[in-house]
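Fold it.
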Amino acid sequence: MEKRYYAGVLAVATSLVLGGCGVSQSPVTVIAPEGEKVEWAIYSEGIYCYSDGSLYGYVAEDGSEISPCIYSEASPFSQGLACVCLNGKYGYIGQDGETVLEFVYDQASPFWEGTAYFSRDGEYGLIDRESYGELRLEGCESISAFREGLAYFCRDGLYGYMDQDGQVAIEPVYDDAGYFYEGLARVGKGGYCGVIARDGREVLSPRYSDVALDGNYIYARREDRTYCFDREGRELFSGLWDGMKEEEGMFLLRRYEDGYRYGLADGCGKVVLEPKYDSVELIPKWRLVIARDGGGTGVLDYEGQVRVPLIHHSIAADEEGLRIIDADPSWKVGYLSGEDLSVKIPMIYDDMSAFASGRAAVELGGKWGVIRSDGAWELPAVYDKVCLFSDGSMAVWTGEEVRLTDRKDKLLLTGPYDHVRELGQGYETKRDGKSSYWDRQGNLIAQDYGVSSADFLHGTANTYFLGNDMLLRTGEEDGEAQERFFLNNWITPEAGSFYTFFRQGSVWLGDGGDHGHAAGIEELRQRGRIFCKLYRIGDEKILYFDTGTWESLGEDYSGVFSVRDGEIEPLVSGERFGGSHREARVYFRFDNAEDVWKMSVSGTFGGFGGYADHCEIYRLENGQAVREISLKYFFQVAGNYGREDRLENAGLFYDEEDRPYTEETILQAEYLTEYLLDGRRVSAEEYYEAKERYEHRYYPTPQW
């Protein structure tokens, strides 16, 4: 069936999509493939690449069709071209949808920094964007995209870097490598991480369990210590923390002690707040810190002095100062000056919004009104609900009827709507589970659609899904580059056999428990992005993969394949579910007894009544994964165990501080912890002794 697109300026979009419910000159574009749903889309260079759930196509931001959904794989446009797959072969199309480079490649990547890479008939090569000339690469098992003029490549399981002429810039001596960012790249060797410069100089030698590049600093971790270095590799400070991050000249510190605790250090590394707080939030404008400890929230300054006692329910900063909510039983809301923390508005209100354009909505005695930052009333508290918006407009409810007015009190719309919210350059109203969209002048754009969302749309600031079957473009997009997409590993090692496997093979996806299912690799590719990288364990080549949807609550998978004599076989895999307490991820863990890396599937699962932490260790034998040990601990309500079991094994049940119970204390316990080694209940000491053997872990990180 031929596809038609309803699009254009509002005068076109309204008459077609809404069946003629009014005409406006507002520059809003509605894009709706007729009779189909847009299940995924990404914006780049003025064009939306989208999927109907199985195939991919392209549509311009004015709604005109560039290509229908005919491609089995597709990338966003980059440097004027899009890499697509048709009938099992890759090629490139231009922004008019016409073929620019024929469909002759077994695999190919988008153009980035003037270069794309391909595989054809078992050979790798580069394509120049200007001339479309091809450069064959010898002895290259895989290659990344180029960033800062260099691409990492793999030869015999080891990584180095090459330039755009195909010349080796840094010899392949590393077990792992990542992209360069401002002249530095993260590398791995012997299971440890380091940092190198573009000239190959080791800024940090690979001896850290983890390394992160962040702005002007390098963070590294070894054993229980976290280090901060400058970009030349000079150590600035260190401490017994799990992590740190610079923010506005200060360093947030994190440490795990029965849960994460947070603190603060100044720009010289001096600790001003020990990591003992449940959370800390910096307010650089006033050099203040909102801290929460146990059941109370307060305010401290950058020197660690308490300015507001930690006794309040919550404190939040906005443009005018700090909104403060008193603790139970009062729950009253007031406002503090950000400059000197003096009381600007006393804690007498039942609720209060953040200040916007110098005013806030407040609730008093079950009714809502509007006050200014000096506490004076602008609207008395006689309304059922009030919502303030960023441009000064305001929605006010009287009963079920709402009036939306602009900053000058001009009426924009009125009606019996349950909710009104800002969405892009307009407003979304909701009534009886259906939504409608209006521009800033109060003109109706689209009506009676489902939930609007940007979860399935990427690279945009002003375009949204409406009911998951059309796109609404409410303003000019900024053309944000989709770097995380373009820097994915598109070409995989052993391209020929892996290419076939990806279209015909399947992998067993386990959840860390006793459940799992088979999923086709092609199915996983359709769900979103897939990241692959070649590694070695001893003399064996293995392929790590990590895949996931673009959805915030989607499913993610990771796993390892063996690569032997051109054959690809699944070894181990893990499955994670976004938004739920169920995770199994593939890691590499170092066996301290045998000095060798092994595979691990680790994570958590649980629900009502408790949770479990699991770790399965596998060794590689003749290209097969052999489980070596299983470590699990369970924390759950005592009632999940029988009375006799608890009494007979009291010494193998532990409290939250890892103290064993006795027959006298266990029947009063509310929660129990137990440790299992290969399914056998053991003491905490035996469990931790076994786990310590494999404590150091490493996993490839897709570096976008």
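Helices lie at 10-17, 483-486, 495-504, 521-527, 643-648, 684-692.
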